Amino acid sequence: MTTATRCSVAQQTLTKDLLVKMHKYWQAANYLSVGQIYLLDNPLLKEALKREHVKPRLLGHWGTTPGLNFIYVHANRLIKERDLNMIYITGPGHGGPGLVANAWLEGSYEEFYPSIDRSAAGMQRLFKQFSFPRGIPSHVAPETPGSMHEGGELGYAVSHAFGAAFDNPDQVVLAVVGDGEAETGPLAASWHSNKYLHPVNDGFVLPILHLNGYKIANPTLLARLSKDELTKLFEGYGYTPHYVELKQPTFNEKLESFEEIHTAMATMLDTVMDELTAIRAAAKAEMDAGKPITRPKWPMIIMRTPKGWTGPKEIDGKKVEDYWRSHQVPFSDMTPEHVAALQTWMKSYQPETLFDETGALKQELVELAPAGIKRIGSNPVVHGQVTKDLRMPDFRKYEFKFDKPGTASCEATREMGKFLRDVMKDNEDSRNFRIFGPDETASNRWNNVFEVSGKTWFADYFEADKTNDYLSQDGRVMEILSEHTCQGWLEAYNLTGRHGFFSCYEAFIHVIDSMFNQHAKWLKTTREINWRKPVPSLNYLLTSHVWRQDHNGFSHQDPGFIDHVVNKKAEVIRVYLPPDANTLLSVTDHVLRSRHYVNVVVAGKQPALQYLTMDQAIKHCTKGAGIWDWASNDEGGEPDVVMACAGEIPTMEALAATDLLRQHFPDLKIRFVNVVDLMTLQPEEEHPHGMSDREFDALFTADKPVMFAFHGYPWLIHRLTYRRNGHSNIHARGYIEEGSTSTPFDMVVVNQLDRFNLAIDVIDRVEKLQKTGAHVRQKFVDKLVEHEQYIAEHGDDLPEVKNWKWPY
């Protein structure tokens, strides 16, 4: 750690009066932060601190907090002097006490939580609620005004910052990256987001890499690199790094020792803001001249401070400040000596000079904060208060038409792409819609969107790129081969009120499992916070799915993201398995209009049979599950068996099995049920889309065998239906972790989801066929043997399988 304050640009002169006030404001934020971690009562220390004033369980993180507070007070000055709209993203998410403290100081907190006002009683409630049962979490959470970044899991600060800046030209997004966070893979990829930021049409992102040297119990890598190596690293990422290296003060130093620290930070922030303004002006001049924009070298700040800055240097003879021991609670064994040390620490901030007798922040300090929605904690953009509806074309006009169900084929996601092309076109002026994906837009058959938008690109061009690859500095298709970065961009784009779709190969969406967790929990929690408004849903298209990954092999086969998603609260998640193009179009329109959900849509991109007209598709999707009359022969009576399915390939195999059974057993009564909204299988008490028991029994019966062909892992069907009357009669088939490089039909065969195995299952479970169906059963077993021999010789599926169509 450097022992002197250094700034890599010429120093600015601030007035002595402003320096004093800014320092006191920082002291106030630090005081409130320590108080939140430790105190249950006696908030202003008007009496000697006692053990009963301290919380019984001490939770929270101190180490990063004073640095975050320091940045916040300097951000306030910048906002006021330059009339900025600023979002503050806190990568070190467990710096929660600092962001809460600053929201309280600026007055945002009491506007959202009137009982926690700026008074002694309000301060006591502020302290008590922190990391307390039924209170607020220790990290920057949905309950924190001004936040849109949970930060509990590290790695997403930069991708969230850029996602918030896209199409938000009036926003400055301050992204503080902790040096522990900087070691994560998602963060490493997200630094490349600067190659996607438009200097004129998007907002400014200012990353601040906060190097305080330590993680929970180890040094951090970036803090131990030489300045030369660190500079080269970020220059390689395309940034111009500026350094603010702050000396190591003790918690009881006088104000004068801090003056150069505040001067250095203020100077640096003014410098980078001037650089950002100059970048925009230069880009605007190039645009006006009809020239391509020269990719900027975006500024960033690398700020070194001690970990646990302004806290005790030692406790019980062990180093604390500027060491990993300050990471969480510097001392938690509250002996009388430690209680006295805590009082000394808190009084070093001189609370009597910061707060008046009533506990309110002194007026001279109140005036440092911006006013109204200019306050970071009151920015409406991060509270969902600026969402605009999409202009939506009529999805019905994209209908794929055919003469008979199950006889014509198309690529369902290609039809979806035509619809999304026009969504993109209709919202071009409002800049309210983007598509995200890891290098898969064309692969997933969304090619038509390139008719109205290119792929965002500010890196270098080769000559061939200009004619063949749709690269565009003003593109609205976002492609980077990092699922983490795509997810982070879209999350923030949604949270700041805009709409999008994320397409991904089904097996590799698992890369962002934990990011989905965080976002789903954010949506669940914010549903219960009245000052946060519903934001556009996060929409996934999962394609290149398990049943059409026969060419890539076993590693590419995994439909388990659905299982992961349904673990989350019912008011947040939706899962759709449209069986054909028209149902996919209906679902797409629905999810783009929805608010505050995570919508998972699984659909195929390969040519596949089509079943429902648009009118039928709309009705079917509205119900979520229903009988396909044209595929059933039980009308007017009871079925002998219910053939159920969910998903594109399972639907085809279930229909083909139905065909086989009807050929060989004309008197067998089969009811064909398709499920497009997976959550309808749950009881209505468990999910808003769930069916009542009466509806479920009417559809599936309570006592007949149900053969359920499912897109994913079969046990999920049992998990969703275990409380139903006829659950013991449901026999689900799906992916059972079998398969490799083979043929499309062999994929379903090895997972026992194929038409022959489904038909055999019916023979085995329908009582009247158990005695009469032996010969037919043997034929189906022989077909499976024939299939195995045929693919081994020809490398392709049996013609009767490959060319099958619905015959009725």
What does this 3D model show about the protein?
Its cofactor is thiamine diphosphate. It is an enzyme of class 4 (lyase). GO terms for molecular function: aldehyde-lyase activity. Its EC number is 4.1.2.-. This is Probable phosphoketolase. With 808 residues, the chain is of the alpha/beta class. It folds into three domains: 378 residues, 3-Layer(aba) Sandwich (Rossmann fold), CATH 3.40.50; 214 residues, Rossmann fold; 178 residues, Rossmann fold (3-Layer(aba) Sandwich), CATH 3.40.50.920. Helix content is 37%, strand content 13%. It has 26 helices and 23 strands. The chain has a six-stranded mixed sheet, sandwiched between helices. Strand 14, helix 15 and strand 15 form a beta-alpha-beta unit. Helix 1 packs across helix 5 and helix 19 crosses helix 23. The protein is elongated and about 95 Å long. It starts with 5 loop residues before the first strand and ends in a 6-residue tail after the last helix. 55% of the residues are buried. The model has no long low-confidence stretch (mean pLDDT 93).
